[in-house]
Amino acid sequence: MGKAMQPNMEKLSFGELLREAREKSVDRRSRMRLSQDHFASKLTQKLGFIVTRNRVSNWETNKTRIQVDDRKILMAVLTVLHDYGGIAECEEADQLLEAGGYRTLNEEEALKINPEWKPNGLVGLLIESATEGSDSSSPGNPGNGIPSSGPLVENATKQLKKDCM
Question: Which domains does the chain have, with CATH numbers?
């Protein structure tokens, strides 16, 4: 796993984490950190409507927030941060979202940002491990101790699908 944005992340607000990630983001051409103005410009390009430096500032200072149901803006924010190195892993994106009270990335969203990302970290890995090479006559998946079928796997699969919708 890569570095987390900051050790005390759960105590930081969405705005503080956004600012931190933006300040880690670097434009490869100019080799400069993304300013609020440059970040707003990149968001404008992604979204097709104007995002101002003032709007970014208001998000970072928690004066205003992105509406919970405006997933397009949240996805653009995460994509720009990823494209410029402000966030490197799916877990970092999820931590930022959770800090703002937003739903974490589902698989489709994670893959749009980075085709190598797998959302839901351990849960997804457990489900994948539990179902790989499973045999309906086998009580479990030998070698890893994780059941390959049964109510536990079915409930975990249902919860995972529900969380990703």
Answer: 9-106 (1.10.260), 121-163 (no CATH)
